[in-house]
Amino acid sequence: MPKTSARLLALLSLLQARRDWPGALLAERLSVSPRTVRRDVDRLRELGYPIVAVKGPDGGYRLGAGTDLPPLLFDDEQAVALAVALRIATTTGAGIEEAAVRALNTVRQVMPARLRHRVDTLQVTAVERPGVRPDLQADSSVLMTLSDAVHARQVLRFYYTPAFPPETVAQDPPGPPPRRVEPHHLVTRGGRWYLVAWDLDREDWRTFRADRITPRTPAGPRFTPRELPGGEVSRFVAARFRGSDGSGEWPCRGQVILDLPAAEVSRYARDGVVEELGPDRCRLTLGAWSWAGLAATVGLFDAGIEVVGPPELKAAFARLGRRYTTAAAAPPTAAAAPAPHGGPTAPRNPLDNTPAAGEL
């Protein structure tokens, strides 16, 4: 029979592995009598572990939730997984970076040397997306509120800060009424958090940025979940960022032939398809949020272009050609003074394939 301390650790590990354990099965796994299991359970309770006795024909035990957090037991793989998750949590933009660092330091201090070395070899460097400022991180309390509403299937009310708030005047007019939505999914993409929900007032699906949400309480009534377009939240979110509500494909997709080697084009084609037609010639199939955006993206390759189709792409090249010709012929003007702090934001880059409209 193992020593009492080792047996208690083994019993605690088993209780954490599954929800309910029949007493007889625990005794068999520990190679002790049911009476010894009962005594060991009492010892764990004295140490602060809330172990509940399960009634029934077989009887058994369950590790419940208590008011205090007792010491936890992890095997080697669980300890490493926890440390890795905490290190990655510092790059999620969820507003928990400082807490994650402190928790990681706490876990690391109690790790055996062999595990500490494995964790220390993992170094994660967060590379921010261009245009995503660190001050736009979501508040962790807001994320918890949104997550609770998604889990409880309760209508959520919140104020939504406009992307470009109006300048402050002497007497601000009343703001827009709170939004009322059926929250379905809380997702993260590119360092930002989003709420996917059915907007009750607009009767349509919307994607809201969590850092612009101010929840109102109390929550509304419960609702029956609707079917998300496309069936999968990942496909739906991808479609919204591509300006489409359908399958997740770009709303505008065309094909051109470029006077460049396929290997050179492939490095910059993103999710496009490149086919080699010769040593210095290839076919590129690419998508974008608009025909003008697609034509401009193809023009970045700075090479001879033959438009295969569709006609909308050829027309977009013609429109851009006229605009560029006009811009090149216009006389130079004095550089405009920079906008003061808090002034209007520069328009979105048309080559950025993020939708201009909607809640994103």
What's a quick, concise take on this entry?
The chain has helices at 4-17, 23-30, 34-46, 76-89, 97-109, 113-120, 140-152, 233-241, 262-266, 291-299, 311-329, and strands at residues 21-22, 51-54, 60-63, 156-160, 179-189, 192-199, 204-209, 213-216, 252-258, 273-278, 281-288, 305-309. By secondary structure, the chain is α+β, with helices and mostly antiparallel strands.
Overview features:
360 residues, disordered C terminus, elongated, alpha+beta, 11 helices, single chain
Description of the structure:
This protein has 360 residues and is α+β, with helices and mostly antiparallel strands. The chain has eleven helices and twelve strands. The strands form three sheets. The chain has a five-stranded antiparallel beta sheet. A hairpin with a 4-residue loop joins strand 6 (192-199) and strand 7. Helix 4 (76-89) runs parallel beside helix 6 (113-120). The radius of gyration is 29 Å and the shape is elongated. Mean pLDDT is 77; it is low at 339-359.
Structural class by sheet pairing and helices: alpha+beta
Number of helical runs?
Answer: 11
* Poorly predicted sequence stretches spanning 5 or more consecutive residues: 339-359
User: What percent strand?
Assistant: 15-25%
Tell me the series of helices and strands, N- to C-terminal.
HEHHEEHHHHEEEEEHEHEEHEH
Give the helix level as a range of percent.
Answer: 25-40%
Give the mean pLDDT: 77
Distance between the termini: 61 Å
Strand order of the largest sheet: 7-6-5-4-8
For the secondary structure, the number of strands is: 12
Shape: elongated
Query: What is the C-alpha radius of gyration, as a whole number of Å?
Result: 29 Å
Biggest β-sheet description? 5 strands, antiparallel
